[in-house]
Design goal:
Layout lengths: L1 H10 L4 H15 L3 H11 L7 E3 L2 E3 L3 E3 L10 H6 L4 E7 L12 E4 L4 E4 L8 H8 L8 E6 L10 H12 L5 E5 L14 H18 L4 E5 L5 H13 L4 E4 L13 H7 L3 E4 L3 H15 L4 E5 L5 H10 L3 E4 L1 H6 L2 H12 L1
Parallel strand pairs: 3-4, 3-13, 4-7, 7-8, 8-9, 9-10, 10-12, 12-13
Antiparallel strand pairs: 1-2, 5-6, 6-11
Helix pairs in contact: 5-6, 6-7, 7-8, 8-10, 10-11, 11-13
């Protein structure tokens, strides 16, 4: 395919974040014209409908784009033209923030992985909402992934999450509460029982006051089975409709890349092929804990048809991709959607 033979080698000659920005800018431009959108659709080919019910919503098919790739909702229509059934934008914070210092995005090609420590760099929920207010719902389902600003203490984190969903109200189809990124200091502390219960209850209450769209919480893969299942049950009790499993991992075990190179990168969340089995295990734990009371979105190391089948068998209702999309290109969408449909 053109992507694997030409485009990926060219993009991989650039620093990772520059390649990301270049790709996003091209999609943003191409989505603005019918010819551009037609070209994007031709790159992917036919992606057949296979409707899925999850979180109280109807998705055209199970495969969506994970949060992190289109942080500011700039290329939503472009990603839908590539065949995604849903696009999760963000992570969006109430106030704009620049994120962590560059370089902060690194490829590990031998592992088909990425390490990032972006730090919720975004231009704020209000700007994204203005852009999303112009979208046509017929394009597909959009999720708003929200987080707290780096300089907001955890004691006031609830305020940031509430401000973010207030800003996005009426422009997205569901919210994802991100408490699992390893790149905002102290954020994962919000996964602890007392803090988590208070946060989820506050968000659910404000969401109900606004318009009552579905709510999901995104959890980390670096948790015990007991912690995962406790969080999942709490989300159900607090009125959430979904669990997104999982975010990136801080684990570096088993990497093929040179230990000295990995060490030189430093802190950050690891995504891609090394996360495949870990995220599938978390999906299984979540499904065991909540039965059919919550929808489960499987994220992490989705590269092949078998990955999709494994996550579906573990209990996933939907699949999201990011790193697999970077390495495999747009052809991944149709191939894994077909696997889900035909297996």
């Amino acid at each position: 395919m053109l992507y694997n033979a030409l485009l990926r080698p060219l993009l991989f000659t650039l620093p990772a974040e520059r390649a990301h920005d270049l790709t996003l800018n091209q999609l943003r431009l191409m989505q603005q014209t019918s010819a551009g959108r037609m070209l994007l659709r031709s790159i992917v080919g036919s992606v057949q409908d296979a409707p899925v019910q999850a979180m109280g919503l109807t998705f055209r098919h199970p495969v969506g784009l994970a949060a992190g790739l289109d942080k500011n909702a700039e290329a939503v229509r472009g990603f839908f033209s590539l065949g995604f059934s849903h696009v999760e934008v963000g992570t969006l914070t109430p106030r704009p923030q620049s994120g962590n210092p560059i370089p902060r995005l690194f490829r590990l090609p031998l592992d088909q992985a990425i390490i990032n420590r972006m730090g919720f760099n975004n231009r704020g929920a209000e700007e994204a909402a203005r852009r999303l207010s112009k979208r046509d719902p017929a394009w597909g389902i959009v999720g708003g992934n929200v987080g707290k600003n780096k300089d907001t203490p955890n004691e006031r984190a609830e305020e940031d999450y509430i401000l973010a969903i207030q800003a996005l109200a009426g422009t997205v189809d569901y919210y994802t509460v991100n408490i699992s990124s390893p790149n905002t200091p102290g954020l994962r502390d919000l996964q602890h029982e007392v803090a988590l219960k208070s946060l989820l209850e506050s968000v659910a209450s404000e969401n109900k006051r606004l318009h009552g769209i579905p709510l999901a919480v995104k959890i980390a893969p670096d948790l015990t089975q007991e912690e995962v299942q406790s969080m999942a049950r709490m989300a159900a009790t607090c009125g959430f409709q979904g669990i997104i499993a999982t975010n990136t991992t801080i684990d570096r075990a088993g990497l093929i890349a040179s230990p000295s190179y990995v060490s030189s990168i430093g802190a950050g969340g690891l995504s891609g092929r090394p996360l495949t089995h870990k995220s599938t295990q978390v999906i299984e734990w979540v499904r065991e804990a909540v039965g059919d009371s919550l929808s489960v979105v499987g994220v992490g190391g989705v590269f092949t048809a078998q990955d999709v089948i494994d996550k579906r068998n573990a209990g996933a209702d939907l699949i999201q991709v990011y790193t697999g999309f970077v390495y495999q290109g747009p052809g991944l969408i149709g191939s894994i959607q077909s696997a889900w449909k035909n297996d």
